[in-house]
Queue: 2 jobs
Job 1
Amino acid sequence: MSLIDPGIEAYRDVAPRGAVDFLLHLSERVRGRHFVHVNSTRVGGGVAEILRRLVPLMNDVGVKAEWEILEGDRDFFSVTKSFHNALQGEEQVFTEAMLEHYLAVNRTNAARLSLRGDLVLIHDPQPAALVENRPSDGNWVWRCHIDLAAPQRRAWSFLRRYVLRYDAAVFSLPAFAQNLAIPQFLVYPSIDPLADKNRELDASEIDSLLTPLGIPRDRPIVLQVSRFDRFKDPIGVINAYRMVKPYRDCLLVLAGGGADDDPEGARVLAGVREAAARDRDIHVLDLPPDAHLTINALQRAATIILQKSTKEGFGLTVSEAMWKGKPVIGGATGGITTQILPGVTGYTVSSVEGCAYWTRYLLAHPEAALRMGEAGREHVRQNFLITRQLREYISLLARLVTT
Amino acid sequence: MSERAAARTAVATRPFTFTGCVELREILGRRARDEQELMEEIEGLPAESIYYHTSTVFLRRPLVAGSYPNDFAIWVGTQIRDQVLAERLGMVDPFQFDSPERVREEILSVLDDHLEGISLVPRIVFGDPFFFVRSHIIEVPTGLEARTLREFRGALAEVDVSALYLHALDARARWGVPGGHFAEWIGEALGLTLLSERVGRLNPYMGGLERIRVMMLALIDAELDGAFATERSPR
């Protein structure tokens, strides 16, 4: 973060008109109420990133918010990583010993953590079994951030036993909801407009961040920012770029990371480098996980931003791109279809050809690209900023404590 | 006294209290994969779900215009790719009906008529199913109040856009107030009937709620500045 805990007042200039005052009035209903977040890490990953801002903001508007961290050993996190993959549809093996260890760690943490609150929001599968030891008072809600559209049956049926003991569940997309006998709410994730990844940068900052990367600024830049993962379809992006290139001279930048500790990512990155070989206008950047300002600068320097995923959870990089006022062309999958309004803020596509077609169109029609970029920024302002997520969590608290 | 002169001095018989709202969205776990299923599901949905997919679309998109104005039309157009039905559903205006039940009847009538005229039921091939959600509206006072047109203008300019939704649109759809609360108050409590009529004619199809705000402010400014007589109707 470039700012240390900016309070809610700092969001007046970026949130929709009247939104901060409205939030303060809404919070009056739950002033002094106790809201406990529980997840399994304080650093790294999208959940920790958003909680680091959300918890101070909750306190700033008068809710007593706390953030508890579940602790586990290497074996525990190995089991939960398998859970994560299985719930997202990958076949995994689970032994009784693995499941027992998962439960034992949760029980140990239940005795250690402070889990009393008007609303206890348990994030993701790692701490889900804490509910076994929930106190008799307070509301418990399971917040699922992952793509549960097609979970592996055994993993989900185990976890489902615990989810049913909550008062409600929250999902990021309707497609992720399950057949459950508890209410299931929809809360989209959000971006923080004041974080390094999204804050305003002036031209000199952008230049100083991009110069070391050796990317020329003399032609339009087509950019995709994403992990080197086959579901992000980086090879498809290169093929689309090659279809466009004879019609419009442009550069392609593929910026990502996560290949260091992920064998699959390393293989995808190697394939991307091979596919890009001998084309000096394709720039493949393997960035460290904290390169937030660099990504921000790349997005601001780009003409068009792609997120050509073939499978996606929510895909917040789309909102990050739109926040920079850029038109976005994204794969018609997951949360990308929620964020992009086709023909208004960009286009959703289902093929390499579709990606090439709309890229060529937007490169040839800068006025349309500008208009879509502006519409996209306003769409994000209204729907995908942290102030909106804060409003919905506080509403959930208000609803649960008054019903 | 002329209406123009009255606009600057009139004190309302009752204050206007601006109330905003938050929408909590509940996923129903129901889905449709083709137009027949869409029709069958719509028949059995809670009214709050019809309301979510038609009315509160404007609350979620207060500024961006250009796509179809309700979720059913958007899904049929982008996922099933049946442009004829998308166009027909896109013209269903939930604010012309006094309850979500009437909106449901209108949508079912369009769907039924469309399905009668085709031999194969269009379904998703590459697209996503339609997922049904329902709306829980929580009303929240904003602390803003007005007794004169000038105070009203000041509050309107700064209030959260959800208050525009509640007073300008929801008042028509859920509470049966034909021109919405703003027009009603301007006419009844301030006695400015011409301005009330013009405000009551504003609709969200001109560019969303933020466009309604801009146009209302322009109408009020014209009234306060005395230029109202030369303004053209916003329609």
Note: The interface with chain B takes residues 16-19, 21-22, 25-26, 29, 171, 173-175, 177-180, 183-187, 332-333, 337, 341-345, 348, 350, 375, 378-379, 382-383, 391-392, 395-396, 398-399 of chain A (CB under 8 Å).
Job 2
Amino acid sequence: MSTKPDTFYIQETLNGNVNAYAFLVEKYKQMVFTLSIRIVKNKEEAEEISQDVFVKAYTNLKNFKGESKFSTWIYKIGYYASLDTIKRNKRQLNPENIDEIYEGDIGVLQDALSYLEERERKNIIKKSLLKLNEDEQVILTLYYFEELPLKEISEVVNLSSDNVKVKLFRARKKLATILEHVIEPKTMNLK
Amino acid sequence: MKQNKNIDDFSKYLLKDVGLETPSANFVANVIKTINFENSKVSNVVYKPIISKIGWFFIALSFIGLSTFLYISNTESSIQFPAMELTFLNKLSSINIFEYIKLSKLFTFSFILFSILVLFQLHFIKNYFNKNTIL
């Protein structure tokens, strides 16, 4: 079933087969939910937004021309829906204001992380990610986890490829800096 | 350069390690339920045109019938309009209501410029909203 391309399921959905759409929801729910949770930083809210995103995409599926990938399209809807929510709630999300750029040894940082237990390590990375700006988190996730090319990421976040590249470059250094701040006291305690 | 490569690999390791978040188990079911609900709402409301097709047919028929009747019937009108005194209309046109209103050149130019600005803004605001609406 999963060998068929998205366009097949889109066509089936347009023909009135809602179950075909369920397949698309199943395929992209985690990514849409992850992008949303990294922006709104709240599980319940992110779940609600993600559900709305899929319903909205369903009702507008006939407008999807296939010029971009379905994944890019749905991530874009999710990205903007999440941004709208934080804008509507006028929530101050206080991304970490980091001016210093990490120039240290990445190997040391990676070693320190590997000493930690899996659960704690994941927790630390998640918390550090949440300290980045919304677009930085989304760009990092799409580039490193989803391994999307820069061009597709630029379509999702509505920025030029060069701009995405610069943000990506900055975001990963920022993440390393945040991680260093979080890990250093922990590793010092271990000694 | 090496530092860049290192940080690139490191970021990849971090993001892969942390993985994706998983929504609740009934996520897909909830989405499909909402979609089915929306679909049932749509199919329940059937909009009927105010004038039905038969209605339009009769309207067209009577229009054609009337036109044909007027065309073939005697063109000499049996209705005589009474002769009316309409010369007062000429007097009306000689009244100039703007006679005592004097607009300075400065006001006129600024008013025109302002109107142009409003039109421009309309154009840009419309473009801005079009751009920001994804769907």
Note: Chain B has a mean pLDDT of 80.
